[in-house]
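Appendix B. Extra example for self-study. Work through it before the problem class; the solution is given directly after the inputs so you can check yourself.
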Amino acid sequence: MRKNCMFLWIMAFLLFGFINPVLAVTTDMYENSDTGYKVIIEDDANLLSYNEEQSLADSMEKLTEYGNIAFKSISKNGYGSASRYAEKYYHETFGKESGTVFLIDMSQRKIYIFSDGQNYKTITKSKAETITDNVYKHASNKEYFECADEAYSQMYTILEGGKIAEPMKYISNALIAVMLALFANFAIFKIATKNRAASVNEQIKECAFSCTHTNPSVRQTGEHRVYSPVSDSSSSGGSSGGGGGSSGGGGGHSF
Amino acid sequence: MYICPACGAGLAFNPKSQMLECAYCNSKFKPEEVEDTQYKMAKGQKEKKIDNITDNEVYDVISYRCTQCGAELMTTEETLATFCSYCGSSAVLQKNSKKNKKPDYIIPFEKSKEECEKAYKRMLQRAFFAPSDMSKSQQVEKIRGIYMPYWVYSYEKKGLQKDNGSRRSRRVGDYVYYKDYEISTNLDAVCDGVVHDASANFSDTLSEAIGPFSISKRKDFSPTYLSGFYADSEDVNNDTYVAQCREIAGKRTSKELAKDSTYSRYNAHPNVFMDMTKAEMGLFPVYFLATRNRKGDRISYAVVNGQTGKVAAEIPIDFTKFILSSAVLSVAIFIILNLLFTITPGKVLGLSILFSIISLIVSYKQVGEIYARENKLNDKGVLAKENAKVEDNQAKTQILKNIKIKKNLANKANKMPFGERIKKIYKPLISIIVAIIIFMANPASDVVYYIGAIVSIITTIWSFFGLIKEINLLTTRKLPHLEARGGDENA
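Solution. Structure tokens for the complete assembly:
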């Protein structure tokens, strides 16, 4: 009986481990005694040295004032996309609590920041995209510690109410603004100077018109048929609801 | 010139009072009374009795022919016209006295020149990028009242009108059966006053845009109404617009007939084919303003309905104004975007493809329109006039063949051969191809996306220069616009 029980436990563990791609041994590096929020580093892709992990954990500690904070690196992604993986990982690790995870996905060559709860109100999708855009060059240069450290530093600046450099936002918006302005001006000009021809109704209104007719006579001339298959009018009821969506979100960048 | 019986000065028709007025002694006369009783100044300031009363078909006019574009305008005034109202040329105008065929009706001017100038300026205020030359007072003052010839068609349908309808009767399996019916009625319909301009000088687009005219206010023609104005004569046969106007009359009658519940009960849509009973000539009031571009090789027109004050104009774009305004607007948009969005470089490139595609579609459409305009394929009046010219020509067969080809091209949607169009719109294609290559390469670096987006923007701006050029071609006409006999074909 005990053997059977042990066997089932091992099988369940193995099965769950294979099915759930985000399952890994979680390493709690720090827990904020005031807030209860944790620092977690899981370097599955072995991108950081021991010293770098310790140093990174020190940098991450201050973020626990606002929420949980995690570093995750992977070399295989069973979910197909970095965003999906980060979201799943976050919810399985922290549930619905406030916090942020910084993911380095080596299989997709993508970095991704996912936040939820109170943190997501500050580290929004656009902020996450800005931060990842600011630090992706480190990842491209294989400076993974610098990449993560800089990302946490910028996250902290934002959470503290500070401002970070947003070159991507300004360059992108400038380019779009130029194109939008050209098209808007062109459209405005075309609309404002369009010579609309008088409609048939307007023209007819000015004509002298009279029309009388006798009672119309109606005569059947034939019959025709139209193919119109009877459709199945009974329809199944739709699903009444779905699961609650995640409130979190984030943004990322290839490297 | 009609002279004032009180003081001998010249009389001019005043649109406000609808009277002939003397500027010196302020006397006022009804136009029809003046025609019957007054003397007219002949050449050399000698007086002679008007002899056009004896001939009901014609009236005396002084014709001015522009030596540059060949346009001919008529007036009852002796005073020399100083410029051509059609091409804006101040070249010497050839003056002739002649007898002109009387039109059947005239709609006198109701709007004064000042009112039309104001209406035109109001329109220009909406056209932010219009060249400033167009709104200069000395240019606006060149606006001239011209009585334009219009065909006034009358249609009728008297007799049996048959239409078809059907009603659903039953369903058998997968088939629905309908009973077909013929609905007959004795119809007596008259539609009088469907109009179309009869001058090839007057673009159909502008003429249709300032319509309609209130036909009920037409008066029997009297040359006295021309005092102070010009008149153009018809050069497009009334056959040209018969079908187009018949359709209007037919629609009106069909709509009236459809009000009978029998037609709705049997799902019948009456389609009345009207017979033309007469086509009469009317002179309708139009204010005309021609503005040459800075190079002086093209011309744009603004016209105002002299009865209602409705304005239509071909307004080119002032390139500098457009670019400066776009620069200011882009700063405003940039500020707003920064408050709302953070857009990734990939999305910027995606959006730039979208803009390129829009620019491609607009350009594709415009080059077709330009082609039709430059080859005179979109104006029935001009085509009809060309046809008439050909009939005089000995090499009739070959030229007719050419015109038939042109007409066929005109009937095909947007007329320009596909290959020729592509040659003119390759710029946006460049940016689309660059963007697709970048998306396929999927580089990590933002720089590549930005370079792609910048290339795309440069080609979009480049193609915008083309679009503006196209607009300026569409809103102007090459000179000599009319190419009438006597015009300087090499101008």
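Self-check: The first helix of chain B runs from residue 31 to 37. If your reasoning did not lead you there, revisit section 3.
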